[in-house]
Design a protein that fits this description.
About 50% of the residues lie in helices and about 15% in strands. By secondary structure, the chain is of the alpha+beta class.
Amino acid sequence: LIDKSTLSWNLGDVSIVGANLCNAAAREARETFMSGASQKGAAIFEFGIRWLLGKHMEVVHDLVMSMPRHEAYSQDANFEQELKRAEQTFIDGWAENFRDDFYDHLRMATMNVQQARIMKALHSMEGMTTKSTLSYELTNCSDITGASKRDREAFPACKCNHVKHRVFCGTEEVSERKFDALQTKSMPQCTYSRPYCAAEASRHDLNDLASILNPNPAKKFYLPKKLDGITVLVKEGSFWRASGSVRKLGAHGLNFRQSMDWNDMVDQKVKPFVRWGAKIPGVVGEYDDWIAVDGCDTLYKDLVDSAVDLLTIHIGSKMYDMLYSPKDAIRKNPEFARQLFEKMKGEKNDAFLGTAFPSLGQRKAVEDEISREEAEITEMAASLEQFKLALEQ
């Protein structure tokens, strides 16, 4: 089952209550997910974020500097260099924020196996035949999937289109091929499930979701100790081993059962059979003719798969948040100009800025000249007021 790191498996397989396959699988899933491909993935994502934001910043920079009123700044080499340095600090900050958030979710991703399952179940419910509904109306036979009106009778007399189909509500058969639609609708089984025609009941749209939301989802599977009078399970210390053979039983291994019933086989996709000679981990119960095994041998794969799904969804949400978040958004941020100015200015005084950057020095000189002219105009206006008062007196 686990072949990534023996140390992690051995540590995880011993919990405060003894050997625990679920604990081992959960620990190994987290260790595996936090290393290897995930680390490389984080580096690739961070590189992509830096590249994308760098291109974005470069385009905006060139557009702003191409404006005629910014010509003096674009020709000031020192100013351009300092401006690009300040712009790079924004890119570094955004990329580091993404990286830190990515690693936070990387650590949490394998702790929630249910959320990804719920999202998949909700996504698949749309295409199912059997729907749950609080209310629905039947006004003609075509409102019922797979049904049509009878040749010589009016609604509510309906029939299933296929001669071998019957009427179901949810997972229960409620009528033969020919039926009264309104009478069927009034049946308790059809109160919250719209009737439909089919050869057999469809899986209900809430079955999978209900199974996922079960607060105690632990699943037990069962193995018989004997098949056709031949012992197929032997106990070796604290372990059980499948002891049959292809020659004696004509099979390559022992199939799990959903219950202590010979015919209640488990689908191979759900839990593969135990090959002859293999040890059986996770035994949680022993009975006269059966042993019970927990379902934790699939937990490792479930945790990793769900973690990938959750991380993928989060990356999209995080990138959207970085772009439009009310706090420090990348796009249409009214505080960006002030933040950029503060990064460029730092603790430098106006005199230093004027000396270091000729374009800012020229602007300062022009601003000082304008201030002097405004002061002279103010003084002239005051003098004119004095002359006016003198003439009036």
